[in-house]
Amino acid sequence: MRVPILDLTRQHAPLRAEIDRAIARVIDSGRFILGAEVEGFEAETARVCNAAFAIGVSSGTDALLAALMALDIGPGDEVVTTALSFFATAGAVARLGAKPVFADVRSDFNIDPDDALRRVTSRTKAILPVSLFGRRAEVERLAESGLPVIEDAAQAIGAPHLGRGAKMATLSFFPSKNLGALGDAGAVLTDDPKVADRLRLLRAHGSKPKYVHHVVGGNFRIDALQAAVLRVKLPHLAAWNVTRRANMERYRTALANDAAAFGLALPEDAPGHIWHHFCVRVGAGRRDALKTHLQERGIETEVYYPNPLHLQPCFAYLGGKPGDLPGAESATREALAIPVHPELDAAQIDHVIASLREFFAVQQ
Ligand SMILES: Cc1ncc(COP(=O)(O)O)c(C=O)c1O
Question: Is the distance from the beta carbon of residue 81 to the nearest atom of ligand 1 less than 6 Å?
Answer without folding.
Answer: no
